[in-house]
Design goal:
alpha/beta; seven-stranded parallel sheet; binds nicotinamide-adenine-dinucleotide; binds uridine-diphosphate-N-acetylglucosamine
Length: 339
């Protein structure tokens, strides 16, 4: 099948491109490089050993999107194209709503015009809001999101749900990611945050290579095993493989399906720090800091549905996540080069 990865030059998109190609699929990328660099796509090409058609465009631009669909005859779209910095979304919410919702609407309209019926959407565990019960199961009602970014995911889910109700031929898979970390084991592709990292693992990696002096752990008075927050960290290569399975599922089924992509296991921030130190045989400098607004104390998936229906489950270990993150960061301390 031919798969269009919208936002495919980013962190999860590049890893998905590798796994899609390894599974024998044709890959096409569309990206405006607002949060990624062309070098990332060149490195994917080096890993898969073939040229990947890559279009430089805003996915909300229907005219340019139509040209891609006319040229490439796409079977499945995987929609990663979104802004994702939670704190930034509270400062420029309108840009977040504009970008993250327009991209979905344009994709849906062009897909309908071009007869493409299958879409995989990058959603997030953030749509569950403050967990009332753990683990989080797909049929729990969506909760109150903690940020405009979260609401864009919630609203996109609703838009796609409505689109499926109106068009029974449409096939949409909502993938609710938990906390993706890690990198391809080659160390040639990985997460390349712009500026100060918002998320835990990129921050840890930058402290480990001496790019930042000290990690702040946000809160050590949560009602958890050691007082720090608990999350379900998942290796990005496992997550990427989940997209391969979801695309195959979308080829065979109509309607809307929702899957958690997590491991089902929660680790605390301190456990993550200690694991990173142990696996990579180094010491991380850290200090405790006040709680970060919007953080929930614990969040982890019930991962059974994806196993039963998609035949997917996370295989990589916490050690793999720590080792691969460090390998990527050590080999690329400044991330991808420009140009
Ligand atoms: P990323 O920023 O690395 O990748 C997103 C890509 O989309 C970037 O290459 C960016 O340039 C591109 N993009 C953004 N707006 C675009 C537009 N209008 N037109 C074309 N390209 C556009 O992020 P990621 O970590 O790879 O995340 C991918 C998706 O998964 C996002 O939608 C994100 O919200 C979602 N998600 C990510 C996480 C995570 O922890 N990384 C967790 C849950 C959900
Ligand atoms: C965050 C977003 C979530 C989004 C996901 C992927 C919030 C509230 N949630 O998840 O919506 O889908 O990223 O982009 O922002 N931590 C530290 N020090 C740091 C960074 C993080 O202690 O420097 C802690 C956090 O307090 C949290 C844990 O590490 O307890 C994980 O944080 P992070 O990696 O940002 O992910 P989430 O907050 O779970």
């Amino acid at each position: 099948m031919k798969v269009l990865l919208a936002g495919g030059a980013g962190y999860i998109g590049t890893h998905t491109a590798v796994e899609m190609a390894a599974a024998g699929n044709e890959v096409v990328i569309a990206d405006n490089f607002s949060n990624s660099k062309p070098e990332a796509v060149r490195r994917v090409e080096a890993l898969v050993g073939e040229k990947i058609p890559c279009y430089y465009l805003d996915v909300a631009d229907k005219k340019l999107l139509t040209e891609i669909f006319e040229k490439e005859k796409i079977d499945v779209v995987v929609h990663f194209a979104g802004l994702k910095a939670v704190a930034e979304s509270t400062k420029i919410p309108v840009e977040y709503y504009r970008n993250n919702i327009d991209t979905t609407l344009s994709l849906l309209e062009v897909m309908q015009e071009q007869g493409c019926r299958r879409l995989i959407f990058s959603s997030s565990a953030t749509v569950y809001g403050e967990p009332k019960k753990l683990p989080l199961v797909e049929d729990m009602p969506p909760g109150v999101c903690a940020s405009p970014y979260g609401w864009t995911k919630w609203m996109n889910e609703q838009i796609l749900r409505d689109a499926c109700c109106a068009n029974p031929e449409l096939s949409v898979v909502l993938l609710r990611y938990f906390n993706p970390i890690g990198a391809h084991e080659s160390g040639t592709i990985g997460e390349d945050p712009q500026g100060i990292p918002n998320n835990l693992f990129p921050y840890i990696a930058q402290v480990a290579v001496g790019k930042r002096p000290c990690l702040s752990i946000f809160g050590n008075d949560y009602p958890t095993k050691d007082g720090t927050c608990v999350r379900d960290y998942i290796h990005v290569v496992d997550l990427a493989k989940g997209h391969v399975k979801a695309s195959a599922y979308a080829m065979e089924h109509e309607g809307l399906a929702t899957f958690n992509l997590g491991t089902g296991v929660g680790y605390s921030v301190l456990e993550m720090v200690k694991a990173f130190e142990r696996v990579n045989e180094l010491k991380l400098s850290y200090q405790f800091a006040p709680r970060r607004p919007g953080d929930v104390s614990e969040c982890y998936a019930d991962a059974k549905k994806a196993k039963e229906i998609l035949g997917w489950e996370a295989e990589k270990t916490l050690e793999d996540m720590c080792r691969d993150t460090y390998r990527w960061q050590s080999k690329n301390p400044q991330g991808y080069p420009e140009g």
